[in-house]
Amino acid sequence: MQPIKGLGFLVIVTTLACSATAPPAPIERPPNIVIIFADDLGYGDLGAYGHPTIQTPNLDRMAAEGQKWTQFYVGASVCSPSRAALLTGRLPVRSGAYGTEARTRVFFHDSPNGLSGDEVTLAEILKQRGYATGIFGKWHLGHLPDYLPGQQGFDEYFGIPYSNDMDLTREYSMELFREPKIETWNVPLIDGAEIVERPAEQSTITRRYTERAVDFIERNRDQPFFLYVPHSMPHVPLFRSSEFVDKSAAGMYGDVIEEIDWSVGQILDKLRESDLDENTLVVFTSDNGPWLVFETHGGSAGLLNQGKGTTWEGGMRVPALFWWPGKVEPRTVVDLGATMDVFATAVQLGGGELPEGRPIDGFDLSATLLGNAPTEREVVLYYRFNEIYAIRKGWFKAHFITQGEYGMGPERTEHETPLLYHLGNDPGERFDVAKDHPEVLQDLIDEAAGYRESVEVRPSLFDARPPAE
Ligand code: MG
Fold it and tell me: What is the distance in A from the centroid of ligand 1 to the CA of 97?
C-alpha cells in the first residue's frame, strides 16, 4: 500500500469547483477517525444511558446526533487486554495480552514487556494510508521504550504509559484513594518517548490531553488523521481540574465524568469549527465496566450485573456512541457490537486492508452506522485470563464459570449446568432459564467448545513479572 499524498490539495480544489450547485460531494478523502476511550466508565454513568445525577450534555448531544449502542462489548473486563483488542481487532488471547492470575491481569509498572511488534495496530494501518496518528492519554500496552506508542504506529504521544494507580510510593490501603494526593503514585507523564513529569500532575491531566487533542486536529486539518484519546480517568485515584471540583451532584466521581464530557465537547466543537465534522467518525466508549470495590469512587453499570474484572454484563458491556453528522444515521442500536469491530470499521473506512496471515475478530460496522443493515456479529466471547467464562449468541448468554472481581468474592465457580440468561428481557442476569431452553443451552455449549478448539492462544505476555515478595 502506498501512502496517500497531496490529499489536502485535492480536497480544496474539488470543494471550490462544485460548492454551490452540486449535490452532496462524495467523500474526497477518507474520513478522520477519532476514538475517545474512557477508563473504567460504567454502562450507567452517562446521562444518555440513564444516570440521574451525572450531567453529560456533550455526550448526550453526541448520542442524539449519532448512534447510541446498547449491546456493545469490550474484549476483556480489565485495561491492557481491552486496549489490545481495540487496537488489533483481535481477541486478547491471540496476541498474548492476558495474564493467568490476579497479579498479572494487566501490564504493571515493572512489566518487562509489552504488546508484540508483530501485532498490526489500527494506527499502523491508517498511517500507511497517509493518516497522521496521535494518542493523547493512557497507553497501557508496555511502558519500556521498545513498546511505547511510537513503536506501534503513532506519530505523536502525550500521556501516561500505565494505570494512574501504579508505582505506589506508600503501602497500599483504600484510604489512599479517598482523598488522593499526586505524590502517592509515581506515574510518569511521557511526551513522545521522554518522561517530562513525574509524578504526573493528575489533576490537570484530562484538560491537558484535551488541549493536545484539539491542537492535533488544528495541525492536521488538511490531511486525514487518526486521533486516539484514551483518558486515564475515571480510573481511581480520581483527579479533576479546579474548574470541576465540587461541580457535580454525584461527588468526585461525577466531577471527573463531567470533565470528560467537557473534553468531548471541546473535541466536537473543534471539528465543527474546522468544517471537519462531516468527514470525521467519532467513537466514544470505555475500556471496561466500573470498579465497584471503590464504592462512590467507582462508577455504575446501571441495571447490568457486577462490574470491572468480571464476565457479568457490567464488566464487559459499555456505553458506545458513534457520531458523524450527515453520515451516521441517528438512532439507538440494539445489535451486537464490540471494540474489535471498531478496528475493522476504521480500517475499511480508511481504505486499508485487514492484516494478513492472522485471524481478525472484528466485523465492519459501517453498513449499520451508515444505513440500516444489521451487524454481522452474532457471538460475544467473555474471556477471563485465557478461559472462556461465558458466551452470548443473540439474546442468550451462558455462563460456564462465574467469579467476583479480582481480589474479591464470590470465588470461582464452575457450573456443571451452565447458567443461561435472556439478556433481552433480563438485562440484569437475574433469572436462570437453563431448564426452559435446553436446546439453546446446548447450542451455546457447542459454540463455545468450537472456539476453545479453534482459537490459538499465544503464551501470556503479562505473566512475565518480578517474583512475588
Ligand atoms: Mg480500565
Answer: 14
Q: Domain for residue 460, yes or no?
A: no
3-class DSSP state of 161: coil
Does residue 165 form part of some domain? Answer: yes
Q: Say if 6 falls within a structural domain.
A: no
Q: Which three cell numbers stand for residue 196?
A: 517530562
Please check whether residues 326 and 385 belong to one and the same domain. no
Q: Exposed, middle or buried by CB within 10 Å (0-12, 13-18, 19+), for 436?
A: exposed
Same domain, residue pair 384 and 362: no
Q: Is the pTM of this model over 0.85?
A: yes
Q: Is the per-residue pLDDT at 29 higher than 80?
A: yes
Looking at the structure, tell me whether residues 282 and 309 fall in a common domain.
yes
User: Are 302 and 71 contacting, i.e. CB atoms less than 8 angstroms apart?
Assistant: no
Q: Which residues have a catalytic role annotated?
A: 79, 140
Q: How many domains does the chain have?
A: 2
Task: Tell me what percent of the residues of the chain surpass a pLDDT of 90.
Answer: 91
* 268 and 313 co-located in one domain: yes
436 CA distance to ligand 1 centroid (A)? Answer: 36
Are residues 206 and 354 both part of a single domain? yes
Binned at pLDDT 50, 70 and 90, residue 372 comes out as confident
Mean pLDDT of 313-321: 98
Kindly state the helix (H) or strand (E) to which residue 315 belongs, with its residue range.
helix 313-316
Nearest residue to 368 (alpha-carbon basis) of 327, 396, 339, 340:
327
Query: Among candidates 280, 269, 285, which has minimal Cα distance to 325?
Result: 280
Q: Summarize pLDDT for 145-183 with one digit per residue, the tens.
A: 999 999 999 999 999 999 999 999 999 999 999 999 999
Instruction: Say if residue 248 is in the same domain as residue 138.
Output: yes
In terms of residue numbers, what domain contains 384? 380-454
Query: Do 333 and 439 lie in a common domain?
Result: no
> How many other β-carbons are positioned within 10 Å of the β-carbon of residue 27?
13
Give dist(CA 71, CA 396) in Å, integer: 12
Q: How far is the CA of 83 from the centre of ligand 1 (A)?
A: 9
Q: How close is the Cα of 361 to the center of ligand 1, in Å?
A: 21
- Specify if 143 maps to a domain: yes
Max distance between CA atoms of the chain, in angstroms, equals: 72
pLDDT digits (tens, 9 = 90+) for 400-415: 999 999 888 899 999 9
